[in-house]
Amino acid sequence: MGRARTAAAFGSVVVLFAWAAGCSSGDETTCGPGTTLSGSACVPVTDAADVAAAPTFAGVAAVAPVSPTSVFATWNDARSPSTPPERMRYAVFAVPAGTPIDYAKPLATSEPGAASFSLKGLDPSTTYDVAVRAVDDAGRSDDNTIVKSIAPARDTTPPAFAGVTEARPGGAGSVVLRWEPARDDLTPPEAIVYYVYRASPAGTFDFAMPSLVTRPGAGEATVKGLYDGQQLYRFVVRARDAAENVDANEESVSSRAGPDVAPPSFAGCKTALAQNAGSVVVTWDPASDDTTPADEIAYDVYAAKQEGGFDFTAPLASVTGTTNVRLTGLASNTTWRFVCRARDFSGNRDTNLVERVAKTLVDDTPPTFGGLLTVQVDSLARSVRFGWAPGSDDKTPASELVYDVFEGEASGEEDFTLPRASSAPGALEVVVTDLTPDRKLYWVVRARDQGGNHDTNTVEASGTTAVSFERQIQPILSYECAVSGCHVPGNPMAGLVLAAGFSYGQLVNVPSTEVPSMLRVNPGDPATSYLWLKISKNPPPSGWQMPAPATGSVMPASEQDLIQRWILQGAASN
Question: How far apart are CA 210 and CA 242, in angstroms?
Fold first, then answer.
């Protein structure tokens, strides 16, 4: 009875459990490639048309021992007018040396597109003749008679290999590597495989996981998918013999990838569906690109209220590695048009004009909201934390309500057309930073639904910020004191530098040079701070009043007052 045949493409090891026969027992007869059934016998195909259409194939290229019971065979692609290389199968034959080969009875048949085959379960004391024939989609076989002889043997010695010798930019997002053939004691050059390793972004190689495995006998490889055109990629190549012994060279080369100028292939927006009065979900099918992997492709979504009225310099949203986005903050009861465009890692963007249309729902009712509950002002840091209880709305869920902070410099004078800050959807607090220094400020927080409607509560809170050293004191020192010939690096007056980056560290809690018993700035106490006395008294405890008369400048009372209040507030570095 004919036995089952097992096979694999290059890179796999195939175990043969028994010799395959060309025919089976009983009333059914199965013939091998290149033969046909005539009565109860398998005979060669002789039809002239079939012969003309048969694959062109150079036969087995090399064989090598893998172990005392297995050998490795490799070949180059066959050519066929009807079957591409990736679909071509190969019939593998092995018989004791000197025994005629019955080409109607292959030992096994490879998977489509294979370039090699491992034969196992062989007799360790026998030399074998190995042949390979190509088989196309129609079952036609070439008729080559190339035979390679090989005896199974143990091999524990890796190839001798000098490593990769050249790297250069290839096509878009690729690098071409080259090397001289490795040499091995048992595996011929045509059967040696090469492992290509690419360094991680941190510059290390994982020699347990090659990035690419070549076909046997390769002298170069093209590494693709190198989508970052600015990165210098590093590579190591190692040789592997038929017995899977791998050399250990660490010779590396570097190259940038070839430039990427082609945009992704993308069909544009697929659907646009209004969720409520202020949001629409837009979807698309994944784009493909010649260099950028799918999870690195970005998608820019543009919105317009009129057909063709898109500003393609200003996307409404940009996302990466996904196939949908939820757009919020849209006007209610409005017809919106959307265009989606794909953008690769190099910034190439497709130019499709596919529009999808959705109309947001009607929403004229503002949220219900009780306003501010808590306010925590950090005067020195010039920040404030607001808190509130959740609002509610007839069309927007509480988890999607946004809270806008409105600010004014007098009670009741908040500008309700321009929020100072906005919360995340559904948040119950927000922190506002970089407040105006040395100012009493007033705030109101209002809830906003997805239709853009605000509630109208007037619950107000206020807070006062401290004087800022960086924003207010340093500019005074830079203008009045850190001038040529005075308090600048080099040979500063009294050894004091008041230029930005120096002044705070040389003023606060530092003894004065002119009056060592006094600190230049004593936080909280202007009366014992030499800086304050030096700018406000005439004459001061020592020397002349600052700024020095030579500068031709007089410090205004408003600036003196600002410095005094900064010291009173603790002389913070804020």
Answer: 17
